[in-house]
Structures are given as C-alpha cells and as structure tokens.
Amino acid sequence: MAFRFLDLPPEIRDQIYHDVLSCDQARRPPPDDDNPASYHFDLAILHTNKQIHHESKKAFQDNVFIKITTPWSESIEHISSEGRVPIIALGPAADAFGLFHLWIWIDAPGAPPRGTAYSMIICLDDLLAFTRMWRFSNLNHQGLNPHLRLKLILQDPHVPDRKIPKTLQLRLLQPFGLIKNLHSFSVHGAKVLPSVEEALKKEQATPEPSPEECLETASALKDAGNKSLQAQDFAAAMQFYTEAFAAIHVTLSGRKRYIHAEGYYNLRELTTGSYKGQNGHLARIILRVKLVANVIQLYLKTEEWDEARFWGKRSINLFRASFDPHHADDLEGDFDRDWAWVQLSAAMGFPAQNAMGKIFYRTALASRALGYKKEEWNLVHAAQVYSPQDEIIRADLRKMVEQGDPDHKAAAMS
C-alpha cells in the first residue's frame, strides 16, 4: 500500500513543516571561521498541493524576519563580512519580501535619495549580531553614529495594525540599546508599548564604558580567572577569561578571536585608574597577551595539548609577523638563522615581554607533550631570551641539553 503523507496525524505533519521551514532548522553552520552561517529553506513543499500549502504556510509564517535598508551598497557587504550576519535575501528578492516584523531604515542627512536603497533580510536570531557589529564599528570610528539616522518600523506582516506581543517587541527592539549617540532615532508602527520604547531609549542614553573602565573590568575578570585556575575550577576560569576578553571588545568563536574597536583605544593616553598615564592601545595589547598566557596555562592543566599549542602558536606567529612579515607559519627551522626576530624584539624591550616569555614556554610544554621536539627546543630557547631570569626555564633548557641535542648547548648556557 502506497504511503500517503496526508495520512499522517496532523501533529506529525506540523513537526515536519517546522523541520523544513523554520529558521532554526534551516540554518546551516558557517563553512569556516571567516564566513557567516547561511539558511536553506526548502520552499518546494509549499507548492505540493492546496492542503499542504495551507498547513505548511503557518510554519513559515511563524518565523520572525527583519528587513534592513540603507542607501549604501557597501553597508550590506560590511554587515555580512564584518558582522558575519547570515543574509536570507538580497536585492530584488529582499525588496519584494513582505513577511518581516521589523524594518530597519538607516540613512544620513545628505545621503542618496530614497530611490537609491539596498535591502537585506535576516532572521530575528541574528539581530543581536547585527547590532553588536554596528556598536563595534561606532567604537572604532567615533564620529560614525552622530551622522546616522535610524528609523525602526514594527509591523505584524500577517494582520495589519495588530499589536505585536510585548515579549516579541522586546526581542525586536532591545538589541538597539547598543546603538548610541545617533543623529536621530525613532520607532513607529504596530502599537509600540511605551514601556518598551522607554526602556530602549534609556539604554541608548547610557554611555559606553570608557577605555579605562573596560581595562579595569577585564583586569578584575582576569584576576578572578587566575583564582579559579589555582582552585582547579577550570570551567569557571575559562568563563572569567572569556568575559575578560569581551570587556576589552575581543570576541571568541571556536578557534577564532575577533579584535574589535581598535580605534577606541588607539593613540589615547588613559587618565584614570590603575592604567593612568599609559597608552590605551598598548595597555590593551599587554592585557591580551597576559590573558592568552593564562588560557594556555589552563589548557596545560586540563591536558588539552592541541588547544594549548594552537593558541600559543597563533599568538607567537602574530607577534612574529610584526618583526618578520615574510616568515613561514611554523616554529621549526634553525634557531640562529630563522629566529633572529626573537633577539630583535627582546632588545626593543617589549612591555609584555615577561608574559610573552610565558606564552613561548607554555607552548613549548604543549609541543613536548605532542612530540614536536624541534619546535620544543626553539620555543624554550626563545622563552629564555624573553625571561632570562626565570629559573624554571633556565633549568628546563639545561636539562634538555643534558638529555638531548648537543648543538643546543651553547644556546642553553648563553
């Protein structure tokens, strides 16, 4: 007997429609750390027959979509590439799409006329990624938001003039609390609740933490992470370190770190707190280096050797690139010939030199555990260059010479 889809119970059919047509099920993971996720909606089911079209349409209409429109085509590319915000529709498809709950209009005085507009459609789950990207852009370019106008238009795409529930209004509007100091801002449509709009504008009026406050917060979180690490509460330590990175606008995603808001710290002398008198950009770099050293130590404690080596190599290669931009991304080779940049950087008195020495040595320990002997030799030698008074490193290097390659004896005794 042939199987008939419509013979299935209605609740099973509804689950199938949800699995095919909902945003959470249609989302595909990003292909790599540099690209956003994507969506694939199998809309063919809507064209099967009238009954299935009628039943499945509700599953698609349960999604909450958002339309973003600007007069600048490059903004759309920026949202996708820099913000890693998945885009569902662009261009004519976005212009023709009407099933959105929120329309975000961004322009500026003197911008091209409204006939020149570029739109995109995103899912509600990606709205916070969009507003965070915008926030980081404004921090990086301090004069950005005062030149921009933002209009938000709420609507129920299925029943005109029907009020959107408060819980959904909050999800749609609260993320814009991150967007501050605009030239103008307004909310329209769908019976916006005064309490929701007032809470949003109050958050927008709250100033961003100063660079000094960000650094102080991150330092306190780092110290809390160190205490948790000493207590062997590794999950808590990692949470504190992650929050410390976030406090100075560094976000983590898998094996990728994204450094935002460089312009917020650049070329600025700090005026308050424990960082008073320091350059903001340099203070942030030093704190980042210390955090990486501590994260590597955490991975050593949990015997996650690959993670410890990965993050150590990543930091070392980024540091090396500033002195030797044409280097290969490996840590082997002859130390005297290929690692001259270590002596050069140490001679310059890099402010985070001691923390950098810890990164080299802790990465060496991970390389040792994984059997990368040549890499281990070079890393321990480099660690001694950066931390010449560290007795643990000196003793370890001497022991390595006694047990192994005599070609490194001079290096160990230098």
Overview of this protein structure:
With 414 residues, the chain is of the alpha+beta class. The protein is built from 19 helices and ten strands. The chain has helices at residues 10-21, 23-26, 50-61, 73-81, 91-96, 127-140, 166-173, 194-205, 211-230, 234-247, 262-265, 280-301, 305-321, 335-338, 340-347, 353-370, 373-386, 391-403, 409-413, and strands spanning 27-28, 38-39, 65-70, 89-90, 100-107, 118-123, 149-154, 184-188, 250-253, 256-259. The strands form three sheets. It has a six-stranded mixed β-sheet with strand order 4-6-3-5-7-8. Strands 1-2 form a two-stranded antiparallel sheet. A hairpin with a 2-residue loop joins β9 and β10 (256-259). α1 crosses α3 (50-61). The termini are far apart. 32% of the residues are buried. The model is unreliable at 406-414 (pLDDT under 50).
Quaternary arrangement of the chains shown? single chain
- Assess the beta-strand content as a share of residues: 5-15%
Shape: globular
The secondary structure category is alpha+beta
* Number of helices in the DSSP assignment: 19
* Portion in helices: 40-55%
Order of helices and strands: HHEEHEHEHEEHEHEHHHEEHHHHHHHHH
Poorly predicted ranges: 406-414
